[in-house]
Amino acid sequence: MPRFASAQSTERPAVTVAVQRISNSNTLEMLTEQSNVGTRIYTSYAETLIGNNWIGDMSLQPQLATSWKRVDDQTVDVDLREGVKFHNGDVMTAEDVAFSYGPDRMWGGGTVEVPENVKVVARQALPAFERIEVLGPHKIRLHNSSIDPVLEGRLSGSIGMIVSKRAFMEAKSWMDWARRPITTGPYAITEYKPDSVLTLSAFDDHWEGRPPLRQVRFVETPETASRINLLRSGGADFACDIPPDQIATVEADKRFKVVGGPINNTRYTVFNKSHPVLANPLVRQALTHSVDRNLIVESLWSGRTEVPRGLQWSFYGDFYIADHENPAYDPDKARALLRKAGYNGEPIPYRVLNDYYTAQTATAQINTENWRAVGLNIKLQMVENWGQISEGGPETRGIHDWSAAASLPDPYVQMSGSWGPLGSPWKSNQWRNEEFGKLSQELGSSTDKTRRIAVWRRMLQIIEIEDPAYVVLHRNASFTAKRADIKWTPAQSFVMDFRRHNWSA
Amino acid sequence: MPLLIVIAILWLVLMLAIAVSADLISPYRFTQMDLRNRLSLPVFMGGSWRHVLGTDELGRDVLSRLITSIRMSLLIAFGATIIGAVIGVTLGFVAAHFRGIVEQAVLALVDFSAAIPFLVLALAVLAFFGNSLVLFVCLLGFHAWERYARIARGLAISGKTHGYAAAVHQLGASPWRLYGRHILPNIASTLIVSMTLAFPEIILLESGLSFLGLGIQPPDTSLGNMVGFGREYLSSAPWIMLAPAFVITVTALCVSLLGDWLRDRLDPTLS
Amino acid sequence: MLQYLLSRLLRAAVSIVMVVTFVFVVLRMSGDPATVIMGADAPPEAIDAFRKAWGLDQPLWVQYFAFFEAVFSGELGRSMRDGRDVVAVVLERVPSTLALTIPAFFVNIAVGIPAGVYAALHRNSLIDRCVMVMAVTGFAVPSFILAMLLVLIFSVTLGWLPSAGQDSWRNAILPIATMGFGGAALLARFTRSAMLEVLGQSYIRTASAKGLPWSAVVWRHALQNAAIPTITIIGFMLGGLVAGAVVVESVFSWPGVGRLLVVSVANRDLAVVQAVVLMIAMTMVAANMVVDVLYGLVDPRMQGQARAARR
Amino acid sequence: MSGGTAELLEARDLARSYMMHRGFLGRTTQVRAVDGVSLSLSRGETLGLVGESGCGKSTTARLVLGIEPPDEGAVTFDGTAMPRSGTSNWAALRRRMQMVYQDPLQALDKRLTIGAQVAEPLDIHRIGTSAERRERVAAVMAEVGLQPHHAARHPQSLSGGQRQRAVIARALVTNPDLLVCDEPISALDVSIQALVLNLLMDLQERSGMGMLFVSHDLRAVRQISHRVAVMYLGRIVEEGEPDAVLQDPAHPYAQALVSAIPHPGKTAARVILQGDPPNPANRPSGCAFHPRCPVATATCRTEVPVLKPRRSDGRRVACHVAHGEAAPARAPTMLETC
Amino acid sequence: MAFVEIENLSVAFGRSMALRGINLSVERGEAVGLVGESGCGKSVTWLAALGLLPASATVRGSVWLDGKDILGAPKARLEPVRGGRIAMIFQDPAASLNPVHRIGRQIGEALTLHRGMTGERAKAEVIRLMDQVGIPDARNRINAYPHELSGGQNQRVMIAMALAGEPELLVADEPTTALDVTIQAQILDLLTTLRRDTGMAMVLISHDLGVVSETCSRIAVMYAGRIVEEAPSGQIFSHPGHPYTRGLLGSLPPLTGPRRRLVAIPGSVPEAARMPSGCAFAPRCDLSTELCAQVDPAPLPLADDHSAACVFAKPYQRNVHPVAGEGAFARERVLQ
Ligand SMILES: Nc1ncnc2c1ncn2[C@@H]1O[C@H](COP(=O)(O)OP(=O)(O)OP(=O)(O)O)[C@@H](O)[C@H]1O
Ligand SMILES: Nc1ncnc2c1ncn2[C@@H]1O[C@H](COP(=O)(O)OP(=O)(O)OP(=O)(O)O)[C@@H](O)[C@H]1O
Ligand SMILES: [Mg+2]
Ligand SMILES: [Mg+2]
To answer: Is any ligand 1 atom within 6 A of the Cβ of residue D58?
Structure first.
């Protein structure tokens, strides 16, 4: 049986984290919880084969896999760590790993009825996955049906959390399982009250040794002010999702400190090409030239985040196009473009969710003002949910906000996945560009790196400058307020890392 | 007339004047931003006279926003109050006139709205239908309809069974004449009193809905919306929220005082 | 009595069916839970699959009758978010909400009624004025502003009480105070005017003319009569408590039914919204019936009749 | 107008019941408010209708006016049957039959001027041009003794007598053939009662309309009526000349009623009725008055007496004893004296 | 000194004077009638005397009860008087009974207060009182609520309640208005019998001269907050001294004899706030002269125990000049 935090470990601290949401889906299984919100919690209780250096350079690291190697373009061999225990005390074997990637959990068609959406999510995350072959008690082989340059990266995705086969099969149904998965992380789930509190306790049998904290409690506190108040009144040790404007307020009290900064997520605003006005690329170019990114970053973010060079990340390595420029903020140019486009003040709807992203409403209002200043007639429409953003015919959909993240050092997954022929904008006829489509395919199938870099450069040029599909705003940033006496480093992501290496107080 | 009532009336007149002349008197356009000048202090806290009530998180002039918000909130409150009264009175009269099954249907509707707290209803409707000013005002208009319906029905029935309405009916008057020319003017004072009671409730409801993110949406602004968006700045820039909160509270207070006073004046049973 | 109760029950049932139908139609007509629950980036096939799984692809009337059939067999459906039985989801939250509303209700009554009675008995005195200003203000301040001020004072500044969460009974104090104050203010106003009205009645003069001391006149004759209009207000206050819970639970991160409703609405978790609304509606109907019965007990004239002029 | 020999108003065997919810059990009981009333009225004649509260006087008045349909029986006005309430024929007939109410303040709309309200029947029935209407209103107001400046006043600012005059003016403005007065004086002060009675008598003399005068004030009824009908529990129990009925009432109830009239210097015997006023929801068998009747016999308990002329003097009365069909149980002389 | 003596009582509600100096005395065992049109101050007189007016009323003068002034007396002295020595029956019985208490309890309350009766003894006494005032089936009716009784029965409950304290003076404020003639007769009989049996004094307030004359030995006629004429009841009818009294008499239709045109008083009672200068009745009086508009006449003795406040009132010798109209009343006889 597992040994949970017991008497001898009471000297270890327990922390409370005030979060906006614990889980959007009320489940703790990442196949159903696909949001940023879930990212924050799952690394504490679950682990994947290949981990990610969240607080460092985002590089891939061994986790439940000790090593891996490509057998060929479509096959990877993975050595599994020995002596890993699940929270129910079972020892992890290759069987469990194969099961975690198997039909009962992901694909359907096994003995358990799998929710439709789970199958779709799995297929999207692992588009060419074929099967996992058990080579030994601690060795597996992964077969893919096509070439995938980033297959290893995919294994570090959250849906690849390794689960206990026995525990899974004991659950009454797939959804029952999803609310209380049995995994291998440093903390075990002791209590989960949806929309209220998630309590994790130290799992002392963890392969890394005893975790540094006796308990981690995520308390759901949707109101920003309430989260800050909870921290200030001593009810919490961490308060997540602090808007930049509140940083000064929190730090006015020396007992607290706000940490964090840009994360691996870029905010951008996208256009609907099938809108009659936006069909004209000149109008879209005008839009891109009248967005004052620096002002937004300076004012709303107090300069605590940065403007990326287009929709790419420096960890792309060779694929990072260092000289790529965003369309400059130039109202005169925008006006000239509009004149050239023959734009006559036709209204363009701009649908915005109420602060789904940090400072989203404020950003949208700033953009609207800037657009208005160059003569664009933007109709700001606040909507409730994503469904309402995509509602209606082409003429009712104009502009909306989006964000993009990348976890792999290659633009293909991110860009082609989002904007290529397989992406949802393409499918819903929101933005299509023949040349871009062809290049996108080439980027996915070519193995010639130089060619791929050239292709990628051209793609960026098309989608951001010539036939803009979106305009990049800035990197997202995540700020966490915490007790000043705690030494803890935030990740470049929403992930909160409470492992031994990231804790001392 | 008690001093308090005089003050209340003066305040409400002031609010009305502000609402009517909003465009003329607001120093800036209410959406005009000055992002280099965010969260600047109001004069009474040591800020500059350029922004008397300071600026908000986007550097917009709080005074100008307040003025526009007053106009919007009064518009909503008046619009909703009138819609509620018209629907309620009409249904009340219909029930009183036809009696029988029609009356039972109206009463069932009344039960229906008693069975579901308005905020819950609003939450469902607004969240699901999205938000537009017209829908919003109509929805708030439903807030007190059943109260008016009850009053209208009760008074119409009692007027019809004995008294002036029976007399007029006996003269051969048509229902239009009966309800429009006789019953409505006679119950108007009661209705007005209950409208003054509903008015602050609507202002509060609007702010409650804004708090839940369902009220008037940007770029439009209302008092509740200002409070809702300003609440995060309660400790860092309290003026953003406190100015509209003060106006909400004082206006609700004044209308309530006036309503209570009117009721006491118009209700002969209170000596 | 029996016939009265039966007809009252029948109307109650009709209004509940209306509530359910209304909510059903509003919910289904106005937005697709699939997109909301599946998230922004969900591929269309996933959304289609989701719709199919939850029967959202069928004509509205089919869904409607399926829903009613299910309701009558005691099956209110499952949450689209986590697949749990909605009855369990809702019932899990009920104790939290009751933990706020019941004490708040008692605060309303224990503070509001005595304050109103006292103010009426000392009409136009300084205390009367103070009580009334407090009462009108209490009614005019939006509850979330009050809540935030209370938190700033008692949690952040003084550090006496926790500001959010649900760890101990101390967490409940501020939310209860917030909800209690508004209701007490309302009740004080109504009690005062009810009391004033009663004090102006002839039978109060009769009681005095009998030679009863004033205190006995108030206790024995005025209070029970003043209770009659006050009870109707109490009936309405229940609705206010439920609505108040929605806001207060949000401010204090109190995981009650109110927040469940807000969250479920935001997530388009139709079955849960429906179950919550149904539960609230049934509570309200039941509460209104209790008020009716109480009314009959307090006012013998009303026995067997619905209240004539419930405002 | 179709004149002829027909009576102005004929009501035959009118009956009207109401359903009433009573008590905690919510049982509905039937209240037979009017139970077979027949009466007739010719032009220029006044019929007084007296009886204690709740005996069905007002209901009779409403039935006669056609404001409510009778359950049984029929009303003929000027030779034609009463149309159904609410129809256009019915509405048109309103100009020929009008009503004066007990409480003038309640019968007037507090928010309209007297002039507007007096003119209202003309507006409703679209009689004359607006100039003619103004003229007619002025004339009628003068007729009832209101001054022209009263036209601009609101009811509250008039005295009780003036208000009742306004109500009467409104009723007379269309020159009705029938005026029904339902307790037109009982809400008024003694001094004003006299004014109104005088006025009604003068008006009838001038216009020759038929008048149904409902009251429980026997003095007033004697003053104004040509014939009196005494009602008890939904039935007419005695009918005749006022002086005859008041000086020599034949029905024991009428006797009690007359003896109860207080007047100065009264020293003589008074019939004190035993028991409670009757409950129309629970009508006694036989003669409805028998439980309170000092002379009731066994017959009275079982047989319903019919209203018919007494053999001795032709007075119409519904009493077994008065018709000599039963011997009085107690001599009427045994009345208590105080 | 009389048992109760009201001296120069005046009452004002704000600026409007409801009573303008009332002087009235009631001897033990005597029945006094108080008549006048609506609003002339009949009720207010006795409400003021017992301190039952709302605080908004300004009351001046004195009310002597057995030689002690009870006007403005402290509550402790007033409470035993109310209901114990002076009881009052209010005008509108339905509104004057507590709708939510059973009538037995309401009557019993007075018994407990003034006669210290409780429990079964009180119950028995309540039943006796209810029997006495003629409420049938008293044993069951004690559990009834006011709304379950008729107006006449409620009026009798009021009377029983007033009698429960065995008062020395009963003030009956219009005990019969809004009642049927037959019931009215019953109640008047009841009051007369009670007074005869217990020797209690009574003030009967009414606007119906007929009602008052039958029951009372002395009558005071009120007009606009004043007593304008006071006389033994026979005298009032034979020698009405004040034109207002004559007006009241003239507007009563005769029951017998030829139908004459009624002589009505023109105009209406002046509003309390707009009292004419001089004689308040002058604007309605057919005798009024310029003098009347200037002088507010004081009561003038016309004969022993007959006074009238009119400048034209002439003193007379008793039973010398019957006034016109007397004949009509004199001829009236009970008809059978
Ligand atoms: N609309 C009604 N519904 C139920 N019962 C009614 C209705 N109208 C009259 N009644 C009943 O019918 C009976 C006769 O009523 P009606 O008003 O005709 O009496 P009335 O002789 O005019 O009495 P009053 O002198 O009090 O005016 C009463 O018992 C009354 O309660
Ligand atoms: N509480 C009060 N506030 C103000 N004015 C009052 C009050 N009570 C009585 N009055 C006024 O005092 C005057 C005398 O009233 P009172 O009740 O004594 O008349 P009344 O002679 O009893 O008449 P009625 O025959 O109608 O009972 C009236 O003008 C009345 O309006
Ligand atoms: Mg009647
Ligand atoms: Mg009176």
So the answer is: yes
